[in-house]
Design brief:
The chain is mostly beta strands. 6% of the residues lie in helices and 42% in strands. The chain has a 16-stranded parallel beta sheet that branches. Strands 1-4 form a two-stranded antiparallel sheet. A hairpin with a 5-residue loop joins strand 2 and strand 3. The longest helix has 14 residues. It is elongated. The chain starts with a strand and ends in a 12-residue tail after the last helix.
Amino acid sequence: MARRATGGKGGTRGAGGGAGVKAARRPEVRLPPLEPFGGGELEPDGDYDGLEFRQADFAGQDGGGARFMDCALTGCALDETRLHHARVLDSVLTGARGVGTDLAESTLRDVEVVDARLGGVQLHGAVLERVLVRGGKIDYLNLRTARLKDVVFQGCVLVEPDFGGARLERVEFVDCVLKGADLTGATLVDVDLRAAAELDIARGVDRLSGAVISPAQLLDLAPALAAERGIRVDGGAVEG
């Protein structure tokens, strides 16, 4: 079994005005010696333990309900791969690529996702706990009604991520670009957005209660916040 260190219970980072936000606990996955995957297609409800998947093409395959434990997936193609209700535990995914990967209602726990190039990933209803997403780009990430706890997005680009109805607790965005994020109906607890390289919220700016942003980000979000509150901003001169 992989050994991991999660950095204890997590500290509290100081924010402006004396407020604080609890830091996310990051996974530190240490994989045991791995056996190479023997090839073939994924199997529904399959059990994959201590395996290395290298440059495997899983496009269009069905691994729904499968369990991946202490695994390394490197350079794998996941186009239209069906992994609904899968469990990915104590594993590292590096260089994953594909469009339309279905991970709906799956569980990712103590997982590192590195340099992914994905589009239209379905993670709605999923549970992510102690997950690090580092580098890469993910377009149209669907995390509607998902539960994220101790999740860090670092140095990655997220284009139009959908967090509608999701719960985010101890989630950090570090040097991460968010473009057109949807927070409609989301619940945020100890979410740290201050270190985001770019913060663009298309919908649900009213759900930022429970998040911490920087003064500069507040200025950038001011028009959206004003519109949300029905405040009209007019820079014209007052007529006498």
